[in-house]
Amino acid sequence: MTASGYPPARWRHLGVGLTGLVAACAAQNGLPFLTVSLRAEGLTLPQAGLLVSAPTAGLVCTLLLWGALADRYGERLVLTAGLAIAAGALTGAALADGVVATGLWLLLAGGGSASVHAASGRLVLGWFPPEQRGLAMGIRQAGQPLGVGLAGLLLPRLAGDGPGGPLALLAAGCAAAAVLVGLLLRDPARPPRTAGAVRPASPYRSPVLWRVHAASTLLVVPQFAVAGLAFDWLVREGGWSVAGAGTLLAASQAGGVAARLGAGAWSDRVGSRLGPLRQVAAAVAVVVGLLALVAVLTPAVLGPGAAAAAVALAAVATVSPNGVAFTSVAERAGSAWAGRALGAHNTAQNLAAALTVPLAALLADGAPGYPAAFALGAVAAGAAVAVVPGRAAEVPAPPLAAVR
Questions:
Q1: What is the span of the domain harbouring residue 233?
Q2: How far, CA to CA in Å, does 26 sit from each of 29, 71, 142, 147, 373?
Q3: How many domains does the chain have?
Q4: I need a labelling partner for 255 at 20 to 30 A (CA). Which of 26, 72, 205, 236 fits?
Q5: pTM score, two decimals?
């Protein structure tokens, strides 16, 4: 089936799903921009790292559940409910008095917003033909750098009186996205099931999907080592102001968007998800390794300009593999398993993210310092190169939804 069999409405659904992902990712991944504010209130860097990772820990607890619900009840209901829960929890976090209460509310916010990761990928699978899925998933996955970029522009500027104002803004974003999803989104058609037909076999009988999960999980380490510490490093050791560092990281997310779109379009053109994934992983290892080297020398030797260039390049490179990996997972899992497979994929990724930020913060706050934290990410990316399955494991993806 070619793209002519899929109506133009697929782009509207992609846009609505992207909006939900932007709002969710701003809440899940934008909290590192509040580390300076949190530390000004007396928290250590490891304590702030635990708060920053709380939404990610919430994601880990609920992704598989949201994926199963999306497979059974559809994307619209799951997205609306999850974003509404996130909006309420972020409001609670904004009003909370005390670190423990704030952390618990952030945990719940992550649990609710996890619905976006489990369900919005199914929209791409159902609404788009195979020859457009890499690009479409790249657009969908651009929600992460876009959300982080918006957070970088807005949150540091609102955090002068503490984190309450920024958290309220994040709550409003999730609430607005829930309303848009409820009004504009429709579930894609699913392949008809014949009475008495055998249920689709589990895609986990093959090691390929397990290896894609593992490689993507390893690639989360450099992504979150950079995302979690770059802002603090630029301000404390790189010679940048709070507003300047936030603006730099926000601007670098535009490059992250382009990188995800480019990787997705590249995978469509070459007819492979795994080959581009392996090559991008190698590039991430090199770029993050360079950032670790710059962190050893800056600012005494190289100065703030080199710090900015290294961080921007790493911020772009580390987000680029996600769309291709998600497309590979969705296509291999098929319509019957896509929600659960994407939920499992995100669970592994976010478990790694929840562990990476506090661990990297401990390294950065101790004797090893920021260079060791960034080097950890480079080593993990190098390991991912070896874990990505060979191209021989790849099979052409058939269309997975009926003509609309």
A1: 7-189+204-393
A2: 6, 25, 12, 4, 23
A3: 1
A4: 236
A5: 0.70
